[in-house]
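Long-time lurker, finally posting.

We've been working with Radical SAM protein (Clostridium saudiense) and I want a structural starting point before designing mutants. I don't trust myself to interpret raw outputs, so I'm hoping someone here can both generate the structure tokens and explain anything notable. Sequence follows.
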Amino acid sequence: MDRYNKITNKNNREIVLLRAFPCIWGKCSFCDYIDDNGRDEDELNKLNKEVLDNITGEFGVLEVINSGSCFEIPKETMNYIKKIVDEKKIKLLFFESHWCYRNRLDEIKNFFNIPIIFKIGVETFDYDFRNNFLNKNAKFKDAKEVAEKFQSVCLMVGIKGQTKDMIRKDIEILLENFKYGTINVFVDNTTSIKRDEELVQWFRKEYSYLDDHPTIEVLYHNTDFGVGD
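Top reply, 14 upvotes:
Generated this for you. Predicted structure of Radical SAM protein:
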């Protein structure tokens, strides 16, 4: 599995996919990403350090992702990230977190003491679809609640059961409330959630202009950041 890459088409940065302890929620109906989690702390730290040793610092920006939230990354690995950040003169970090950790984000900010863009996978701003169908357990009512804590949101499009109106509204909310965003086009996996090919093709045509948006990234496949499998 590829766990290190350089992103150079927009928002130039290095990105690493680390292994962490099990996701605190781990019940999203569409997600089999959590299979990358582990419980052997020594094994996780060993692999993570090997991945982090690839970082050059050439962009001064680093994104760290894992199959869950940054709070599930082992402490020894977090200390190693801090060491790399200091040595390579990283000026900006991207981390991802579940909604349930929203009141702990300052712990990460204070630990690294550099600007951090926190990403959150909301998948959709439609409350019912997000929580009752996708089972996200992110029970905010309004995008402004999210924007108070997070600077970037991840949306998901192309799922059977979604509608064009839902997607239109989601993208409108994203563009109005957040500087950064990632839109993931759903790819069938081992879960029972299925891709809606007609909806995907409509989205590709309707929102092709987002490919040129400087801070919105559209992932047509879940490995488009160059990490994962």
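Before you design anything, note these points.
Helices lie at 41-52, 75-87, 105-112, 127-133, 143-147, 164-177, 197-206.
The chain has seven helices and eight strands.
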